[in-house]
Amino acid sequence: MWGILVVSVVLCVIVLRPKLAGTAPRVVTSDLVLSDGKARTGAELSFNKDGQPTLTLYGQNENRPATAILSPDELGLRRSGSGSTSLMEGGLFMFDAKGDQIIGIGSALGAQPAIHVWGSNRREVWLSAEESGPTLGMRDDDGFEAALGCADLVTRDTGEKHRTSAASLTLFGKDGKVLWSAPR
pTM value? Predict the structure, then answer.
């Protein structure tokens, strides 16, 4: 009988001690792996070589894992064999499998708020909301550009700089010189 009482008291102390102290049990490990009964890995929680916390999730056949990495100023999301996405202070940025930026949304690094989409070569489309005025622009692979809204212009003869209004359309040649604009 005393044995049952001692075992009961010990179990109560083990179970209730963390609750009485205001803390839950703590597990300390460098890697935590979640696997099913068939020894297939479903997730890993670890630190990468740079000491950043990393969560890797695997599909049913364990290929093409998706990884989330938390660094001091960025949350990076990557999927094996495809591009990546980074959420940074002020912006969301997406990259293709080669590491080239293809989409940028926000106002990271002190830049003005914008949505920017890049294609191959020099092809790009953007919408910006700069303090000096909004612009919807596009550039083709050859470098020709169109800007609906505000655009920075330089007068050829005098070098004088000015900015068009939001109610303007400006077409630029591949050399960056104005081909046509309205209003004139």
Answer: 0.69
